[in-house]
Amino acid sequence: MKRPTTIRTGALPVYNRGVASFRRVFRSSEAALVLLAIAVGAAAGLLMIALRATAHGMQSLIYGLSGSSLSAASFIHPVRLIALPIFGLILGLGSRAAVQRWRKPVDVVEANALHGGAIPLRDSLLVCVQTLLSNGAGASVGLEAAYAQAGGGAASVVGQWLRLRRADMRILVGAGAGAALGAAFGAPLTGAFYAFEIVIGAYTPAAIAPVAAACLTAVLLVRLAGIEAYLTALPGAKAITTGDYLLYAGLGIICALIGILIMRVVTWIEGLVRRSVIPEAWRPAVGGLLLIPLAMLTPQSLSAGHGALHIDLGAEVGLRFILMVFLVKIAASSISLGFGFRGGLFFASLFIGSLVGQLFAGAAIRIHGLPPVDPADAALIGMAGMSVAIVGGPMTMSMLVLETTHDFALTGVAITAALCASTLVRETFGFSFSTWRLHTRGENIRSARDIGWMRALTVGRMMQRGAEAAPDSMSVAEFRRRFPLGSTNKVVLTDGAGRYSGIIETAKAFDPAVGDDCDVGQLATLHETALTPGLDVREAIKMFDLSEADYLAVIDGDGQVLGTLSERFVHRRYADEVEKAQREIFGE
Questions:
Q1: How many domains does the chain have?
Q2: Cα 398 from chain centroid (whole Å)
Q3: CA–CA separation, 376 and 236 (whole Å)
Q4: Once rounded to an integer, what is the mean pLDDT over residues 306-318?
Q5: Has this prediction a pTM greater than 0.70?
Q6: How far apart are CA 448 and CA 110, in angstroms?
């Protein structure tokens, strides 16, 4: 018989011992985690540059652009617009093959909320390729999905190799995603607050230094490379007064209503397309065909719209044209996302918000009794309000206004509008665009706050096996003999086939009013109330509350009893996990 082999620590190869020691440094030192975040920030900045250059290169090659942005083009030859359905078909066929072979890719928000920051490299590559095909072909989506996925995905790969703790992994993924987005805007504070509000889901003391270091590194690298920021704007010449706060609060509310409408329209189109006879692989191609007439109306409907944003902000444009672009852009973005193009609404929401702000300023001039509103200021506030309504993160957008304009007074107004928009959306809708799309897929999450540990804490892991059980046909006399007072408080009953049929309190069987020949099944309660092993801790607590019970049986799909669980134990385990999560937040 072959003897089992044993491995001694001292016998491990020097390379393996070195790797283990290297990993321990990053698991035990906050300073080492900050240094790692700096490296991740540099990688995120380089990946952002590469993705941006690739997408713009594709657009230039397809549409014959000479240095200008696609949405800023004055004219696009209709023949070139055939690229939209062609690339849509490539995207549809490729995405279908990828999903059939693997599954739907995990993005950074879902990863941090449900999977402790773990993102397979394959998923990040797939999201980036899908977004490049969509934006590069001119679909009305932004590159922010690819930026965040590339930065967060790179951080996740490094974190998984280093075997970081769950809390540190989530921080590093947030730092990578925020660094990539901050690099795109040339705004480190914007990137940092994006990481806190959108990707990590909380402002945590332990995350401040790594996230800030990553974002600063990425932005400095991009500036040294001479890459132009996505957004450059100047505030208007009009001084901010107290009345402006009320006016721009109203603009924030208007942006919230429009943002909710856009998210509803995208979901409605997705539902129509899903129920239609169009094969899934062909849907982006059909969407590309629908985008062609919109692009012929105005090229500003294509891509994310940052080129068009600069044109409309810097030139005297009529309100009718702005209204037309506003409607066409919403239609183009809704069609692009509804028919399966990959990308986000962050960059597009900035453009739409600037149009809403300019329309607001034009309307204020025509309404008697309202003070005049500076169009440039209104456009910036509109960008903040619309982005908060769709993407979330009021401080993220407020910092974007500050870093873009360096105007603290205007930033105060932006915060007011952003908070109004955020409050209205949360009260009436409850989701940002990313979490809303996850919600439509069956994931009930409202932010990137870590709830993965709740799903991992299941009834199957908490239950006590080997429950006291008896047949429901047993007589009370036999029950008294088998389960004397003091032996157990409750007994699970089963029917003739061994399936669960209720729970009886032992004391009830010893009531003098109960006859010896009575079946104990007649004294049982909770006949149709039981837990299943797949329920998580939140669902288990809800079951206890609804049934008003303190003790429930756990059964499988066939009704066979697997074990029992008490309400007291569930609450204790939940409290322990919450306390652990709190310690991780504060870096203890």
A1: 3
A2: 20
A3: 5
A4: 75
A5: yes
A6: 7
